[in-house]
Design a protein that fits this description.
Layout (H helix, E strand, L loop, with lengths): L10 H21 E6 L10 E5 L6 H9 L4 E3 L1 E2 L6 H14 L3 E2 L2 H6 L11 H17 L3 E4 L26 H9 L7 E11 L5 E7 L11 H15 L9 H7 L2
Parallel strand pairs: 1-8, 2-6, 2-7, 3-6, 4-5
Antiparallel strand pairs: 7-8
Length: about 250
């Protein structure tokens, strides 16, 4: 584990992280057989942002939390939450674990049963999420972002219509990296793919593949890096053939 300053090293935070890790392990074992490939690419310490495919609303997080030894912080969307009690519970739990919270505007509009949040709250939550995410990265923590914003399987709203659907990555995660690096912090961008296969028993066979870290520098093109990260996640998820990235390897890979 990496040490982190401020609230990240508090007793409450450490307990919350362990509780979530334990719960994720229990849920994961009940519903899935999880296999991880590419451990050698995961930074053992230091700032890292994992850009992951989002396939299952619950099991993606379970695989990440239960498999990775380091504390894992996930940028989560809570626009699906209903009722004041549910909102209080989720905001409290995320706050204790230092999980930044965002509200998706299209998610707020797409919830058929209503939501516990107002549309005019999204900007405030976004500002706080950016601040908290940058603070985590500057503290040497590991932050998970799902740039597609929506999973393939979700009991609430999702714009995905098929098991193989893959949404274009929203580029905001690279902005978090840029902001975190303004004080000299070096952030590793780690692509993570998920491949799911539903078994006759109803359990899932889940393969989580960790790709080679990339880095955003003053000499690299942000749009180019975004394209490469997205392509790598597609490849790692078994949705695209392996691409020849040799022309850009020296510039953006570690």
């Amino acid at each position: 584990m990496t040490a982190s300053g401020g609230s990240g090293s508090s007793v409450a935070n450490r307990i919350s992280v362990q509780v979530m890790k334990t719960a994720a392990g229990v849920v994961g074992r009940r519903q899935a057989d999880i296999h991880v490939e590419g451990w050698e690419h995961l930074p053992k310490r230091g700032s890292a942002l994992l850009a992951a495919r989002h396939y299952h609303h619950l099991l993606d997080g379970c695989a990440l939390l239960s498999s990775i030894d380091r504390p894992v912080h996930i940028l989560v969307a809570l626009d699906w939450v209903k009722g004041r009690a549910g909102r209080r519970l989720m905001e409290t739990a995320c706050g204790m674990a230092r999980w930044p919270i965002v509200l998706r505007n299209d998610g707020l509009a797409g919830q058929s049963g209503g939501t516990a949040f107002r549309g005019d709250e999204s900007r405030r939550f976004l500002r706080t999420a950016v601040r908290d995410s940058v603070e985590l990265l500057r503290s040497g923590e590991l932050l998970v972002v799902f740039p597609e914003a929506y999973p393939n399987i979700d009991p609430a709203y999702t714009p995905k219509s098929s098991p193989d659907a893959f949404l274009p990555f929203r580029p905001g995660y690279l902005r978090l990296v840029e902001l975190a690096q303004r004080n000299g912090t070096r952030v590793s961008i780690v692509p993570v793919g998920f491949a799911y296969l539903e078994q006759p028993s109803g359990r899932w066979a889940v393969t989580m593949r960790i790709g080679e870290p990339l880095h955003l520098t003053a000499d690299t093109n942000r749009e180019h890096v975004a394209h490469v990260v997205e392509e790598q996640v597609r490849v790692l998820s078994g949705l695209a053939p392996v691409a020849d990235l040799s022309p850009v390897r020296e510039a953006i890979f570690s």
